[in-house]
Design a protein that fits this description.
It is a single chain. It is globular and about 50 Å long. Strand 6, helix 6 and strand 7 form a beta-alpha-beta unit. The relative contact order is 0.18. It has about 250 residues and is an alpha/beta fold. The chain is built from eleven helices and eight strands. It has an eight-stranded mixed β-sheet, sandwiched between helices. The longest helix is centred in the last third of the chain and has 17 residues. It has a single domain, classed as P-loop containing nucleotide triphosphate hydrolases (Rossmann fold).
């Protein structure tokens, strides 16, 4: 079943956009339709990540009523579809955030799953992203400041009567100073969907303007993102069954 996921963090710099990019690429690799939306209008990075910082039509134009949603959809060479936002401050004028709801619903009808990269914090842009979604994903780092802000984001989403599907913990170094997953779970009281290790392949993928799951599919980070995507799509059990049969076939062979 196709869904719209708003990806929140509460705090900037935790890897929210990187998570949107790689979850989107992972969903594509699982042969499911998906489109990524940069609803972080004040500090948009999605287009930069894919090497498309400036495009003829963007989400700002849609929210200004100057363009249809379909006109703002672009496809990366990897096959990932995205709706970038403008880097220009002047394009923030005359935007109506309530139009995001209809735009995202259009994308769901035409493209299936939608990942909405929200702004950091708890402002108007985040509220619009939450309002437009079916479920919420929260990204955090394993430190007390990030987890505290993640808790605020969760409460903000729940106050809007949205289901928080779970938490993704990124930039994990397995350092003794990090919060344990148990402590994070006890503080947030939400399922931990996956853990993304600190991986030097991630900044390298940004330089190459592509997702790490495409460039380094065997890396630990890529495998973690693929696992989360499988959970969201309900494909986890099916893939584990296929793995079992592959192993069994290998034994007999």
């Amino acid at each position: 079943m196709n869904k719209i996921y708003a990806v929140l963090s509460g705090k900037g710099g935790v890897g929210k956009t990187t998570t949107v990019v790689n979850l989107g690429a992972a969903i594509n690799k699982l042969n499911e339709e998906v489109v990524l939306v940069d609803a972080n209008l004040t500090t948009p990075n999605l287009g930069l990540y894919f090497g498309a910082p400036i495009v003829p039509v963007n989400l700002n134009h849609v929210l200004q009523g100057k363009a249809d949603t379909e006109e703002a959809v672009y496809e990366h060479e990897s096959g990932t579809k995205l709706v970038p936002s403008s880097l220009s401050l002047k394009d923030l004028k005359k935007i109506k955030m309530d139009r995001l709801y209809d735009a995202v619903k259009d994308l769901k009808r035409n493209y299936g799953n939608v990942l909405v990269d929200s702004a950091a914090g708890l402002g108007e842009e985040v509220a619009a992203a939450i309002d437009s979604c079916d479920e919420v994903l929260v990204v955090t780092n394993p430190d007390i400041l990030s987890v505290t802000d993640a808790l605020k984001a969760i409460k903000f989403a729940e106050d809007s009567n949205k289901l928080v599907r779970g938490v993704i913990v990124t930039k994990v170094k397995n350092d003794k100073n990090e919060m344990s997953l148990k402590s994070i779970y006890e503080m947030l009281e939400k399922p931990i969907l996956g853990v993304i290790p600190e991986d030097r392949n991630i900044p390298s993928s940004l330089n190459q303007k592509n997702a790490v799951v495409n460039l380094k599919p065997r890396s630990k980070a890529s495998k973690a993102y693929m696992d989360i995507a499988s959970k969201l799509l309900g494909k986890r059990k099916r893939e584990s069954e296929q793995s079992f049969w592959r192993k069994l076939f290998g034994i007999f062979r």
